Amino acid sequence: MTDARLRWKTQLFTIIVVLSNALGNFALAWGMRGRSTVTVFDYLSTIFTPWVMIGIALLILWLLSRMALLSWADLSYVLPVTSLGYVASALIGRFFLNEQITSTRWIGTVLIVAGTILVGRGSPHGRGDL
Amino acid sequence: MRAWTLLSLIVGSTVAGDVLQSLEMKRHGEITEFHPRGIGRVLAALARKKFLILAIVFMAISFFAFMTLLESADLSFAVPASAATLVFETFLARFVLKERVDSWRWAGACLVACGVALLAR
Prior knowledge:
- The complex is a heterodimer.
- Chain A contains 6 helices and no strands.
- By secondary structure, chain A is mostly helical.
- Chain A has one domain (3-120).
- Chain A starts with a helix and ends in a 10-residue tail after the last helix.
- Chain B is mainly alpha-helical.
- Chain B has one domain.
- Chain B is 81% helix and 0% strand.
- In chain B, helix 1 (2-28) runs antiparallel to helix 3 (50-72), helix 1 (2-28) crosses helix 5 and helix 5 packs antiparallel against helix 6.
- The chains are: A mainly alpha, B mainly alpha.
- Chain A binds chain B through residues 1, 63, 66-68, 70-72, 74-80, 83, 86-87, 90, 102, 104-105, 107-122, 125-127, 130, and chain B through 18-19, 21-22, 25-26, 28-32, 46, 52, 56, 59, 82, 86, 89-90, 92-94, 97-102, 104-105, 107-121.
């Protein structure tokens, strides 16, 4: 596989991993709002609500797409790059849940993006024999 | 004290889960088929990999420990745990998985870890 194609594939899967994680967590959090899960029955009845099911489906997509990404990209590449999910979660909280983002959190966001760029500009795998 | 025990459990199981998952996926090699039949074949092959099953068990432990931690601790305490796993995992990627971690990756991992810690405040 050529470098350009591998890079394109890596970017596509990174986007899928980041978005499915952030949106999956958001859907779970949204579906769990105001619900108390004390008994096993509470848990089961919560799982079959639409938002929680969407959340679980997205998190399954997250697991599978991350596994696919790890089949050709290094762990030391995948971890920092997919940390963009934290940024996506913060932005979702800001725009959909009206959460306040303090200046400390903005600095954190900038650091994550900077770290992602540093790692992402290199090759997804450091070994030639992978 | 209970919070620190849970935190250690989260960090330990996340690190173990990720390293095992990466190891088994490296062994499997690059996935190139993405049509439904191809995905089914890959999943069938992966379902028999011991390390991958173990990795998913570790991820489940980490998930439920995280949920339990959130019942008693703030998110601002719980989230920096993932910043710690990032640093540990980069070390293990270098020394256990034998990945070539250049200075760009070290610098990037450190920046992201600091960023995650700040984001949790």
